[in-house]
Amino acid sequence: MESGTKAARLELVEEPVGELLLRRQWVNYKDVLLKLCLSLATSLTVLTTCTIVLLIGKEAFAFFHMVSIVDFLLGTQWQPLIEPQQYGVLPLVVGSTLVVVLSMGIALPLGVFVAAYLSEYASFPIRSVVKPFLEILAGIPTVVYGYFALTFVTPQLQQLFPAMEVFNAASAGIVVGIMILPMVSSLCDDAFCAVAPELKEAGYSLGATSYEVFRGIVLPASAFRLAAAVILAVSRALGETMAVTLAAGATPNMEWSFLKSIQTMTAYIVEVSLGDTPAGGVAYLTCYGVAALLFGITFVLNVLGYRWMRRTAE
Asked: pLDDT tens, 116-135?
């Protein structure tokens, strides 16, 4: 009887232990599966980036075999599709710079002000209403912004500046600034909310006002995150295509004027990609040369911004 009782007890003890081992094995399998999925997703991202770089690099290498890279980077005449052909990319760089400068001049101050209000001053009911409306701007297709610039922004500006052309840099910069405003405000809001509450409470305990706490504590503590927002916004404005294609025109020139028609690097890539240019020729390969330059500028901005952010964070 005693031996039977001991055997029954052993069975009762062994059964939960076995279930526990099975559960641990299943948890380990899930961890391995999750790690594998995450590794595949990361590898796919790296593979996609490398494929894009190799494709652009291969075609750009073929283009620079036909055109001098010095003439491409320093030339002031850009007309690769008509005779006499000129391959100086500086007019496209000037056009892109005008759009970026004006859009950042609009989006950055407004984005910081909106983020400061939402994170430091707005009550929860107001924040829950305002922020979704702000995010709606990010969901509007870029081609709609282009038509908005043509049908509304440009006519309003022409009343103030009668000499303004129908296609101009000012309208393109304004609509791009409106378009990237949600991204700037959202990133800045996240940066302000990430500041430790203890730092703010310490400022208030010393008698500081809300403005003094924001200026003296929140802004310095979130400086490196704000730098990331600026870099992403510049890259977004530099790479915008449809809005500037419709609003800015297709006239590459070296004039630093917001009232005249310009052409950006992305707008030229769209022009070549329409299918009118025979594939394989030097005129067709110019879009890869411009794309390589655009990628290089964005890459340098991200590297410099990353190094600055690391130094600021330290």
From this structure: 888 888 888 888 888 888 87
Residues 191/219, Cβ–Cβ less than 8 Å: no
Q: DSSP secondary-structure letter at 278?
A: P
The answer, yes or no, to whether residue 56 has pLDDT greater than 50, is yes
Residue by residue, DSSP assigns 113-129 as HHHHIIIII--HHHHHH
Q: CA-based diameter of the chain, in Å?
A: 109
Helix/strand/coil for 78: strand
Task: Confirm if 183 and 192 have CB atoms less than 8 A apart.
Answer: no
Are 313 and 224 within 8 A, CB to CB?
A: yes
Find out whether the peptide bond into 141 is cis, omega within 30 degrees of 0.
no
> In Å, how far from its chain's centre is CA 302?
11
User: Beta strand pairing status for 78-79 and 86-87?
Assistant: antiparallel
Question: CB of 249 within 8 A of CB of 167?
Answer: yes
Whether residue 308 has pLDDT greater than 80: no
Q: pLDDT tens, 15-51?
A: 465 565 666 666 677 777 888 899 899 899 899 989 9
Spell out the residues 6+ positions from residue 157 whose beta carbon is closer than 8 angstroms to its own.
164, 168, 170, 171
Distance, in Å, from the CA atom of 161 to the CA atom of 165, rounded to the nearest integer, reads 9
Q: Beta-carbon neighbour count of residue 212 at 10 Å? A: 13
In angstroms, rounded to a whole number, what is the distance separating the alpha carbons of residues 231 and 34? 32
Phi first, then psi: give them for residue 133, nearest 5 degrees. Answer: -65, -35
pTM: 0.82
